[in-house]
Specification:
about 240 residues; alpha/beta; TIM Barrel; two-stranded parallel ribbon
Length: about 240
């Protein structure tokens, strides 16, 4: 089997991240938890963040979760720098990973992220089985979210997930049955990267998993990783350090 890496990442810092961490531990997986300080009423407490940091990686996700490409550079810099300083104080460890809210990044924001001292930044780009060529623009493979249809009253929005996935089916040589559900697609992508080598990067939000009732689906996907005991199970920073 060609070398491949499994990594997972989880955004926002909801208290249900503790449930996610338990599942990751159960299946011998690693996670990077990107925590925003002033976003959620049910955010992890600072004690919980420190405890989670002893088990998995904690990454910064700004203070207030703004679109970094939509605010002035000075405010964006404070969101990026001060969120790192806060989490370093909470965990007592260096914070090396960052995720811009909603994946909003451009060259100016990337420069601010690099200048703040982060080693890796994760985007929301999907259907990649590699890390790309920039450790501060890390793509992902699959998002934990209803598929093939989005729960929405808008017809256009409702079909958005399947429309985004379809162009990648021939490129990645995926079977058509993979499009029946997000777990089927996630497992097909896992099997594909095991064949050709590369990276399988699963990401999501614990509060969204709860909202859409996706816990059983998630566990099915995590259980599938047991097929590949030789895969490298890493955090986002460990992934960047191993490949770049």
């Amino acid at each position: 089997m060609k070398p491949f890496w499994i990594t997972t990442s989880w955004d926002d810092g909801h208290r249900l991240d503790l449930r996610l961490a338990d599942l990751l531990d159960q299946y011998d997986l690693r996670g990077t938890f990107y925590v925003a300080r002033d976003l959620l009423d049910e955010r992890l407490s600072e004690a919980e963040i420190a405890g989670l940091a002893a088990r998995h990686e904690i990454g910064a996700h700004t203070l207030t979760h703004p679109g970094l490409t939509e605010i002035d550079p000075g405010t964006a810099r404070r969101e990026i720098v001060d969120s790192r300083a806060w989490l370093q104080d909470v965990t007592g460890s260096a914070i090396t990973a960052f995720c811009p809210p909603r994946g909003a990044i451009n060259p100016a924001v990337r420069h601010l992220i690099a200048d703040a001292g982060y080693e890796v930044a994760r985007t929301v780009e999907l259907y990649r089985l590699d890390v790309g060529d920039d450790r501060l623009m890390l793509p992902t493979t699959i998002n934990v979210y209803p598929f093939p249809l989005r729960p929405s009253s808008s017809i256009r929005a409702r079909f958005q997930p399947i429309q985004r996935a379809l162009p990648h089916v021939p490129t990645l040589r995926l079977p058509l049955w993979a499009l029946r559900s997000w777990p089927a697609l996630a497992i097909a992508l896992l099997d594909r990267v095991a064949q050709i080598g590369g990276v399988w990067h699963l990401w999501g939000h614990s509060w969204e998993i709860e909202h859409h009732g996706l816990w059983a689906d998630l566990e099915r996907v995590l259980a599938a990783t047991r097929r590949y005991p030789d895969a490298h199970r890493v955090t986002n920073t460990e992934l960047a350090r191993a490949i770049f």
